[in-house]
Design a protein that fits this description.
This protein has helices at 15-42, 48-62, 65-88, 96-126, 132-139, 144-166, 172-204, 213-248, 272-278, 312-320, 379-382, 388-409, 431-455, 486-489, 497-511, 520-526, 564-575, and strands at 253-258, 263-267, 297-302, 327-329, 339-343, 365-377, 412-417, 420-425, 465-478, 493-495, 516-519, 535-538, 547-552. The chain is an alpha+beta fold. The radius of gyration is 34 Å and the shape is elongated.
Length: 578
């Protein structure tokens, strides 16, 4: 099996991460400026004076030295990073939203330069007071269509970027509809305010245009220079892309085989995710190929040794999800030679809401955990004369209380099995903590059972008896059935020999006349000191050697050791002078 060593000393600021965070930070600065600008326009629905009052507050910062440097630097950096992204993209079969965002971003300067020259530049060159009276007089109605188009381009570009940045946040799904309504309302109100205020300025007829003919001519000349200069730059970038793509046709080809699927042929350069998209092969990717999630990951079956090892950005993600050595992110892997891969997540059902801290369980994680099996002894005999509705009521009450004991102790209910359940402890914490939590849950179950027997004494022929088995060992945790059934994929299950052993241990409760049976491995992990008379050897099917267990007639008889911190505090308290 091909494996890829992950960098051990991962830099806190790898280059790709710096670029991504710069793009986000500068985008947020510009989006904040645009949002306040548009909200200022919307005040035109009130009056021009209201617009100007808020503008004075706004430009106090934006036209100060720190504000000017921040805005100018953000605009330049964001623009350069956008151009770099345009040049780096090799394949254009991408989501419509990505195409719109990139296209709108490239078109914005065509209108933005004209707007900036007509306001801020003439203010700096000629001392023109470019307040709302001036701007509305100049722009309404002749420049109205340019203003509306500029608002549309800038706002859509920014909203798409904000959506991509936020969509994996847990709270975003709840607020998405309200935010979408707000995003639609702001530009509508802005242009409405601009139109109403523009009409009011022209109807008042009191504004005197402050620029001379020569100044206007020079301003228009600057606009033309900026426009055609940018058009030439854009044409050059597009020509460069076409030449590079044409040259790429003569480069060596690689063959990518999707296990159980097609084999594709592509030239060097694109990422594996881009190759999948170019050939219409479904491939999950929530973050759009930005290495912000792990949904595009693949298992490399063949050809991994010849590939470039993961860089720091990819290694961070793989390390965070505990990926095995032959797993790569398709959005970061640039195939250099032929390879065979298996996409690990189904493209048909992965959504942003599923990219959570449990994401790793969609493809399996090996951990040392403590497993609990429990069921009711002789349940069929106890309920043979009961109505079906009474049996359902009893089971719901019993299983509900027992599952509460599991979750209160820090465990996870894997599944309900008739009159019993299976639970996992130690999924996120240490094996020792998980074992202690399992013992705590078993003790709580013993107490709950005694309370249930008292409350149901008039309804049952005899008290309920349960068997609880605990065993600690390695198991594979995963969302079994996640690829085909959404509901099944929501549950995490444990697989492996530890599961079978824990089930056999619970079955031994009947032979040992015990309520709780704990294996030697669980005892050691929990740090229990148990009496020698509770020690037994049992035969487990599939095991060549007998298994050492400890059996107790009451789960409450098992005493948990005092935590080290509590012991220390107790000793300190005793040693203090009275």
């Amino acid at each position: 099996m091909d494996t890829f060593p992950l960098p051990r000393n991962v830099s806190k600021w790898p280059a790709a991460l710096v670029v991504r965070r710069l793009r986000i930070a500068t985008g947020l600065v510009l989006f904040a400026f645009v949002t306040t600008h548009l909200m200022n326009h919307a005040l035109g629905l009130v009056s021009v004076d209201a617009m100007e009052t808020v503008r004075e507050v706004r430009i106090w910062f934006t036209r100060s030295m720190p504000g000017t440097v921040l805005l100018l630097a953000s605009a330049l950096i964001h623009m350069v990073l956008g151009v770099m992204k345009f040049l780096q993209r090799r394949i254009w079969r991408i989501q419509i939203s990505e195409i719109v965002q990139l296209a709108f971003g490239l078109l914005i300067p065509l209108l933005l330069f004209r707007h900036i020259i007509g306001t801020r530049i003439v203010h700096e060159l000629y001392g023109v007071n470019d307040d709302y009276d001036y701007a509305l007089f100049v722009m309404w109605p002749g420049e109205a269509w340019r203003q509306a188009l500029l608002i549309l381009l800038v706002w859509v570009h920014g909203v798409i970027g904000l959506h991509v940045w936020l969509r994996m946040r847990p709270w975003y799904a709840r607020w998405k509809t309200a935010l979408a309504m707000l995003a639609a309302l702001i530009p509508v109100l802005a242009f409405a305010g601009f139109a109403v205020a523009g009409r009011d300025v022209h109807e008042a007829g009191t504004f005197k245009f402050p620029m001379t003919g020569e100044q206007v001519a020079y301003g228009l000349k600057l606009m033309d220079w900026a426009l055609w200069g940018y058009v030439a730059l854009l044409a050059g970038l597009i020509a460069f892309r076409f030449l590079r793509d044409w040259y790429g046709r003569f480069q060596p080809r690689v063959h990518i085989t999707y296990a159980g699927g097609p084999t594709i042929t592509c030239h060097h350069g694109p990422t594996l995710l881009e190759m999948s998209r170019a050939y219409g092969i479904p491939h999950a990717s929530i973050c759009g190929g930005r290495a912000r999630c792990s949904t595009c990951r693949v298992r490399v079956v063949e050809g991994g040794d010849e590939q470039t090892p993961p860089e720091e950005t990819e290694a961070r993600v793989l390390r965070r999800i505990g990926a095995s050595g032959n797993v790569r992110l398709a959005c970061q892997l640039h195939p250099r030679t032929d390879m065979t891969v298996i996409p690990l997540l189904p493209a048909s059902r992965v959504t942003p809401g599923e990219v959570t801290q449990l994401d790793k369980y969609l493809w399996g994680v090996e951990r040392t955990v403590t497993l609990m099996f429990t069921d009711i002894r002789g349940f069929t005999r106890l309920t043979e004369h009961s109505l079906a509705y009474d049996i359902v009521f009893l089971l719901n009450m019993y299983l509900g209380r027992m599952s509460e004991a599991v979750t209160d102790a820090g465990g996870y209910v894997d599944k309900f099995m008739g009159d019993g359940l299976m639970a996992i402890f130690g999924m996120e914490g240490s094996a020792e903590t998980g074992a202690r939590q399992a013992v705590e849950a078993a003790r709580a179950m013993g107490g709950i059972l005694e309370g249930l027997n008292q409350s149901l004494s008039g309804q049952l022929n005899e008290p309920l008896k349960i068997g609880i088995g605990l065993h600690t060992g390695p198991a594979v945790l995963g969302r079994i059935g996640a690829a085909r059934n959404h509901d099944a994929g929501n549950r995490i299950s444990a697989l492996g020999d530890t599961v079978n052993t824990a089930s056999r241990v619970e079955s031994a409760c009947k032979d040992l006349a015990a309520q709780l049976v704990v294996t030697e491995a669980a005892r050691n992990a929990a740090g229990l000191t148990l009496p020698e008379e509770s020690r037994h050897k049992i035969e487990v099917r599939g095991k060549s050697e007998p298994l050492t267990v400890y059996a107790f007639a009451r789960a409450l008889d098992v005493a948990l050791p005092q935590p080290a911190e509590t012991k220390t505090k107790s000793k300190t308290k005793k040693s203090e002078p009275a």
